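Lab notebook, bench 4. The sequencing result for the construct came back, and we need a structural model before the next group meeting so we can plan mutations. Quick request posted to the team channel:

Model the 3D structure of this chain.
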Amino acid sequence: METRNIMIVGVGGQGTLLASKLLGYLLCGEGFDVKVSEVHGMSQRGGSVVTYVRWGDCVASPIIDEGEADFVVSFEKLEAARWAPRLREGGLIIVNDRETDPMPVITGAAEYPHGVLDSLRERGVRVDAVDALTLACQAGSAKAVNLVLLGRLSRSFPDIPVEKWMDAIGACVKPRFVDMNKAAFTLGRESGGAEL
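Done. Here's the predicted structure in token form:
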């Protein structure tokens, strides 16, 4: 199998690292060679956080270059736009339809750009936008946005049964949060439109 690639992007504290750990666990369990690379940036100051997950028969490097990502999973709209050039032709961006102001916007040095997702779509990018925060809160915690987005991502993996995703959640999440995270995953997987 050729190497496939997922980028998980967001800002510090949003759960990108747990999402990448869970994906790595799931894909290893499917028998793939998996490489995960974390790029923290200024994560503790609300800066960009990027994680690469690559899997296949034999993965040589954990880094995803421009035009290689099959999926970009973004916790925020501007991060989706920032990393869209890494998406391959025909790839998919799954994005939390929310705005998290970066530092230049917070300090008043810049304005948050309007129409970020519309601009991506106009350029022919496939975008699956979901209000992951609302669904996470329905599941019991605003911190479960990561599992809502993984639920959306799971719809693009028809060969991996939902039970295996649930097993991965059970293995990677602290026991007291497992049920809530499974609920968030299910809401993400079952909400919205048809399979993409």
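The radius of gyration is 16 Å.
Will bring this to the meeting.
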